[in-house]
Specification:
The complex is a heterodimer of chains A (about 750) and B (about 100). With about 750 residues, chain A is mainly α. Chain A contains 27 helices and 4 strands. Chain B has one domain: Helix Hairpins (Orthogonal Bundle), CATH 1.10.287. Classes of the chains: A mainly alpha (about 750), B mainly alpha (about 100). The interface between A and B is small, with 11 and 12 residues.
Chain lengths: ~750, ~100
């Protein structure tokens, strides 16, 4: 029965997709007549979450006023048992209305996005459609309009943001319904979606920057959502401050771009880049490196990744939405959006790829030994974001965006599943007042008996992220690894070969730590305790239904962009998989210029002479072997790792956290995250603190002395002068007369 | 004319010294009037040599002096009501 629904849905997706895949070929030939794309209420898409924020915000303020009044009256306000009658069991409106407003505006926005998607589907769109509303700022030659931009890249991002965002909003209704801050939570969540949409729809860098800062603010607010806990509010501050370093880079990049182009509109930059900037020149390299700093901050890459694992202090759906599916992908979006600049700067590109590859492997090693379920997922996210950076760094922009999309599906699913597990664990431990950590996997085990659906959905996501055929992650991750190997040509060829090996190694580690997490959480004997286990339960429908939809997407989401070579082989069922490289064709108008620039530069350098290539990418991996071979090798290896870990994992002796021996040796180095936080503390935080204290104690005191001294002298002189003023009329008259006489004396001639 | 001007100068100096050395506010006030009238005398004297304007100016001056006398006396009366004295050395209000 499940099979038939699946077939029906893919069937309906198939027909229009094939059309566009063929249509995409026509675009290249140009001149083909096409109807114009008419955006449908694009402003409303942005406004809807803002309206949701205002409504929920008003409810949050109303709740705050009520509880403040109650506290002033000496009592306590309980929003869950308000009402006037004797049967006071009804929830206050402030804690019921957000359940409809929050997901409601998201659903409406999602439907609007789909309408726009369908309209864009029906026509062939070459240039982005820019809708100008008003002039935001005009100063000298700088003029920035409040303008939204719709093109193939932004519509993909909008679909992911509103679609996955809607599911996470629904999940939050179940997850957060007993939290006192319920309306505040939805207000922040809606505000976040508003800023995220501004980020991806803004037609210029300043507007993107508004969204960029806005999502940073919401991230800060939601990480520190339970702000009465010092550790959690500190985590929010850490995220905010580390992101400031990156934002500095983005700002400098914007200034440099303005000096070159005199405008900050994406359209103008993309069109004018090739003539305004020299290939490989110092200017474009500086711009891309500063931009990379900004992207690395937002997307949690080395060296600015340290905030993301701490960001897990926020509610779990927040981790799913902001710190896995949407906000952290803003850096990848930025690189894809300004892909021409990166294509013009081989140094900038190879740095992006290098940071991505290093982050992918580095974060994966830390994830190997973490015991907190959310920490595993956090480092896994950092690692997967590294893959996306690798993708856009090697010039495979569509592959990076593809992985961004599939990752949004399966990582949101993993986080929400983890949320369901934590929710259940929390309830169970709460019942018996057991003082254990509800997020520590050592306290779990055997949960699949109690929550079979969650376990099944999370296994799907695990197989997807591990890159097992035919799940979504297989196609997207494999494409990135493949293009990394295929990019090993030209001046940086040895480096790309190294990145390729790193990426393959990280893929194996991914398969291991994800399976380890699943084994420790869902398999083996229950370590929660007998009394507690009675209270473990499957999550409510508001939580499992979003999980099931994400699970569906985690299985089939990868099928929209199957490489032609794999599609026609046995891995693609001999051509049975529906769409061939659809996402590539779809995004081609956005990144075409960049791909061509890269290819032409390689041709001009003679790097491709005598080699088979496709748009500047080789047809074989650095050590030989084609796309199909390596896809097969990597998925078989990943499957072996998953199976091996699962078998060995059954024999692991895991004890509850309270009874475990302390971790020692190299495991401890990994467990303590390579001591990077400590290193940053020594190298940056402490020196700043010491310097600040010195400035405060000594320099500041010296300045105070000078400033205070000037004031004191003035006051003293004034006091002496005031002695002359006796207040006696006689004295004044005498001085007046004497003065007149003196003047007369001097003017006598 | 020189004699008239000399008389005017003598009257002015007497008025000035009176303002400076006397304590009684009424006397000081009268001395100020003396100074004014010394100047008036000088103006009249000059008008003999330079034309009628000097005499016209004296009329203005006398009118203003009358008004000033009214205001000045009113101030002295209100000061007397407050302090019950007209000795200027006992007033030291004119400072901040």
């Amino acid at each position: 029965m499940l099979k038939s629904t699946v077939a029906a849905v893919t069937g309906s997706m198939l027909a229009p997709a094939m059309l566009v895949a063929q249509g995409g070929q026509d675009v290249v030939e140009a001149g083909a007549e096409h109807a114009a794309f008419e955006p449908f209420l694009p402003g409303l898409i942005v406004l809807l979450p803002l309206i949701g924020f205002l409504l929920n915000g008003a409810l949050a303020l109303s709740h705050a006023r009520k509880s403040a009044d109650a506290v002033r009256a000496g009592g306590e306000y309980d929003p869950f048992h308000s009402g006037d009658g004797p049967t006071t069991g009804t929830r206050d409106a402030t804690h019921t209305l957000p359940s409809w407003i929050g997901p409601g505006v998201m659903l409406a926005a999602f439907v609007l996005v789909l309408v726009n998607f369908a309209r864009m589907f029906a026509v062939e769109l070459h240039d982005p459609v820019v809708i100008e509303y008003w002039t935001w700022m005009a100063s000298g030659t700088l003029e920035v309009s409040a303008a939204l931009q719709l093109d193939q890249l932004s519509i993909i991002m909008m679909t992911v943001i509103t679609g996955v965002g809607f599911l996470i909003h629904v999940f939050s209704v179940g997850y957060m319904k007993d939290d006192v801050g319920y309306p505040r939570y939805f207000a922040y969540l809606n505000l976040f979606v508003f800023f995220m949409l501004v980020l991806v729809m803004g037609a210029s860098l300043p507007l993107l920057f508004v969204g960029w800062e806005g999502v940073g603010l919401c991230s800060y607010l939601l990480i520190g959502f339970w702000f009465s806990d010092r550790e959690k509010s500190d985590a929010g501050k850490k995220a905010f401050i580390v992101n400031r370093i990156g934002d500095f880079g983005l700002l400098v990049a914007m200034f440099l771009l303005f000096t070159v182009f005199g405008t900050l509109d994406f359209a103008a930059i993309n069109v004018g880049a090739e003539s305004a900037l020299v290939y490989g020149g110092g200017m474009v390299t500086a711009i891309t490196l500063f931009m990379l700093l900004g992207a690395a901050g937002k997307s949690a890459q080395i060296p600015l990744y340290v905030w993301l694992p701490d960001a897990m202090a926020g509610p779990t759906p927040v981790s799913a939405l902001i710190h896995a599916a949407t906000m952290v992908t803003a850096g990848i979006y930025l690189v894809a959006r300004t892909s021409v600049l990166f294509a013009l700067s081989p140094v900038g590109s190879v740095t992006v790829a290098g940071i991505g590859a290093a982050t992918a492997l580095f974060a994966a090693t830390i994830a190997l030994v973490q015991t907190d379920i959310k920490k595993v997922l956090a480092y896994s996210t950092v690692s997967q974001l590294g893959y996306m950076f690798l993708g856009v760094g090697v010039g495979a922009y569509a592959a990076g965006v593809f992985h961004l999309m599939t990752h949004a599906f399966f990582k949101a699913l993993l986080f929400l599943g983890a949320g369901a597990v934590i929710h259940s664990m929390h309830h169970a431990l709460h019942h018996t007042h057991k003082d254990w950590d509800a997020q520590d996997m050592r306290n779990m085990g055997g949960l699949r008996k109690y929550m079979p659906w969650t376990a099944a959905f999370m296994w799907i996501a695990t197989l997807a992220i591990a890159g097992i055929w035919p799940f979504a992650g297989f196609f997207s991750k494999d494409e990135i690894i493949w293009y990394t190997g295929a990019a090993a040509v030209g001046p940086f060829a040895p480096l790309y070969t190294v990145f390729w090996v790193l990426a393959l190694a990280a893929a194996m580690l991914t398969a291991f730590y994800m399976t380890r997490m699943m084994v420790m959480t869902f398999h083996g004997a229950s370590r929660t305790g007998d009394e507690e286990a009675k209270h473990l339960h499957e999550a409510p429908l508001t939580m499992t239904v979003p999980l099931s939809i994400l699970a569906f997407l985690s299985i089939f989401g990868g099928w929209i962009n199957v490489p032609e070579k794999i599609r026609t082989s046995f891995l693609g069922g001999g051509g049975a998989l529906p769409m061939s490289e659809w996402l590539h064709d779809w995004l081609d108008p956005v990144v075409h210029a960049a791909v061509v620039v890269r290819e032409e530069a390689l041709v001009a350098a003679g790097a491709l002479a005598g080699q088979e290539h496709h748009y500047g990418f080789l047809e074989q991996a650095p050590v030989g072997g084609g796309e199909l071979t390596w896809a097969l090798i990597s998925t078989v290896l990943a499957a072996l790792v998953v199976a091996g870990t699962f078998i060995i994992g059954a024999k692991w002796l895991v004890k509850p956290a309270a009874e475990s021996e302390p971790i020692t040796g190299f495991r401890k180095v990994l467990y303590d995250k390579w001591y990077v936080d400590e290193l940053y503390d020594r190298l940056i935080v402490q020196p700043i603190l010491v310097t600040s204290r010195f400035l405060w104690r000594w320099i500041d005191r010296g300045i105070d002395l000078v400033v205070g001294g000037v004031g004191g002298v003035t006051k003293g002189v004034g006091w002496v002068g005031s002695l002359v003023q006796t207040g006696s009329v006689n004295t004044y008259a005498f001085v007046l007369t004497a003065g007149v006489l003196v003047i007369l004396w001097f003017t006598r001639f | 004319m020189n004699a008239v001007l000399a008389l005017s100068a003598v009257l002015f100096v007497i008025g000035t010294l009176g303002v400076l050395v006397r304590r009684n506010a009424i006397i000081i006030f009268l001395c100020i009037e003396l100074q004014l009238n010394a100047v008036n005398l000088a103006l009249v004297a000059f008008s003999r040599a330079h034309g009628i304007e000097g005499q016209i100016f004296v009329f203005f001056s006398m009118t203003v002096a009358a008004a000033e006398a009214a205001v000045g006396l009113a101030i002295i009366i209100s000061i007397f009501r407050h302090y019950e004295t007209v000795d200027v050395s006992s007033f030291n209000l004119l400072k901040w």
